[in-house]
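Dear all,

This email documents one entry for the complex benchmark we are building for the journal club exercise. For each entry we list the sequence lines for every component of the assembly. Then comes the predicted three-dimensional structure of the complex as a token string, followed by one or two observations. Please use this as the template for your own entries, and keep the labels exactly as they appear.
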Amino acid sequence: MNKELLVIENLTIKRNGHDILRNVHLKIQPGKIHGLLGLNGSGKSSLAYALMGCKGYEPDEGLIEFDGKEITHLPINERAKLGITLAWQEPARFEGLPVGVYLALGAKDRKKEAIESALEAVALPPAVYLKRPIDRTLSGGERKRIELAAVYLMQPRLAILDEPDSGIDMLSLSDVISLAKSMAKNGSAILLITHRDEMVEAADNASLMCRGTIIYHGTANEVREYFRKRCRIHSEKVDFQPVEKDMRVLP
Amino acid sequence: MTSEVKPLHQSKKQVEPAWTKELEAILDAYSKGGGNVEDLKKTNVATLVVSSNRVLLANEIPGIHFEAEELPQGVRALINVEPGAVIEKTVHLCFGMLPAEGIQEIIAEYNIGAGAKVEFLAHCTFPNAVRLTHLMNAKINVGQGARMAYKEAHYHGTTGGVEVVPKAEVNIEERAHYLATFSLTHGRLGKLEIDYDVTVGKNASAELVTKAYGFGDDQVIIKETLHLNGEGARGLTKTRAAVKENAKSEVYTTAEGNAPFARGHMDCTEIIQGNAIAKNVPVVIVRDERAQVTHEAAIGTVNHKELETLMARGLSQEEAVDIIIRGMLQE
């Protein structure tokens, strides 16, 4: 029996003559937080969209397996029914759709208490937010928290959190990390996508992405170290010449 | 209003027995269209119920008066709100027609006295319509400093055999406020042709909110004009329409900034699916350099990101589209 929940092999997406993703390999285990670190434009969000099955991110090569089942060409909602979901980096607005109704849509537990508890977990007072529409009257940070609460309520088997820290003030980063840890403790696998290496500290394992491919796998500390040395200081060099010899694959 | 219009002093208990069944049927349709029948039964709620050309129920309360005249094909009604009257509970109006075919014409005049405050909830129900026309011609005057809200919700049954043509000429006096909400989002739409012409006085304001959901061969035509004639007049048109299958939606809005510091805005969102067609023609006219009128329009299919977000929560594409449209129409 495969202990991996998610296995990505040789995933490649080409668009207009360019490789958006190139030979991506990744494995994620249940109950673990896997950090995916990379500079802006390195392909992290593209990988998230491909994993979720979003339009325009259909693979040209490779496969995605979830719990031993190939899902490479499954539509989004079928993947969601298997337990995969995505918290978008820039969450959508929904005119006229109240926060409470939105949160209940995918929630495993739709009781009011559960929904209120999820809002509290992302530091949004339920009395203020439950009936507010998810429209332009909410800031990007507020929508981000609501998105995280929605994912939390789904109790997914795999939560893809795309830059969950962006648009959220520094003081609230601990809330985001606590939420991810709490989900992992309850058995969810988390793919934590970020361009800030300090976020990866919360992860069990991590991968470093560059120019559409994963160039390094390791523990969170190893990947942070690699990123600090090669990507922060010499980011342009790494961006153009991935150091293939340094690539490692998790056991 | 002619002198033939007679005051109504019927209480709910005086409904003629011959009409009782018709009243029950029209109230049943009212309920299906989203109305709360219990509200109509309360003695402290002003109510007017018209079926075809008969006034079935009228209940006045202090500060508001109804007069009505039964016409061959409808009713002429005069609704007066006394100056300074604050009508605490929403006034309920119900216009309906039970037969499958025919014409109903409502000629209405609303006079809202200076400083008064009132909210109307009008339900128009045509549950059995196959070939039916409902004409509404309204003249509305909102006196100085008064506030009037008029919410109109329609239910046209499931056959699409209704043609609804509501026309209104509205005058909003100094410092008054007028909010009109027209909603036709349950059942078939048939053909809807709205024509509102609103004149806004000094420091007065008007908001016209229209929501429609059409499918099959439904047709919706919305014409709204704001004349921002008074200094500091403000006006907003907000249109939300969704059409699918072979339905058509045409929205024509005009805002005239005719006075200093007048502010107008037209906001239109239309969602189309299938072979549906949507059109928006905003017209901006400014006759004073200190006035400003703006518009924004978005026409197209359901927003892709919204769709994928909901599908990532496990909803099917159809369910997700329905949630997005219902949200836009604030169902």
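Observations: The mean pLDDT of chain B is 89. The first strand of chain B starts at residue 6 and ends at 7.
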